[in-house]
Amino acid sequence: PAAAPTPAATPAADPAAAPTTEPAAVDFAPGASEPVAPPAESAPITPAQTAEPAPATETNTTPSHPDNMPAPSEPIPAMPSSGQ
């Protein structure tokens, strides 16, 4: 019975702390999420584009496996791991 009232008191303190944590987390979350989101998207795009130009060179050597050769050429550890 004593445990029941204890949890009930916890939620009461939660709302009080929520307002203080909400503004701080909201200001920090959006601010850090915004700058982090753009760079994060740009990073994945860079490696993806790098693989495209690379295939062009490999395509010359392997026109039959232009998608298979260039792709594995970049992510060698990722490709072999997936194949195995």
From TrEMBL:
Give the span(s) annotated as Disordered. Answer: 1-84
Q: Where is the composition biased (Low complexity)?
A: 1-63
* Domain of life, per lineage: Bacteria
Name listed for the protein in its UniProt record: Uncharacterized protein
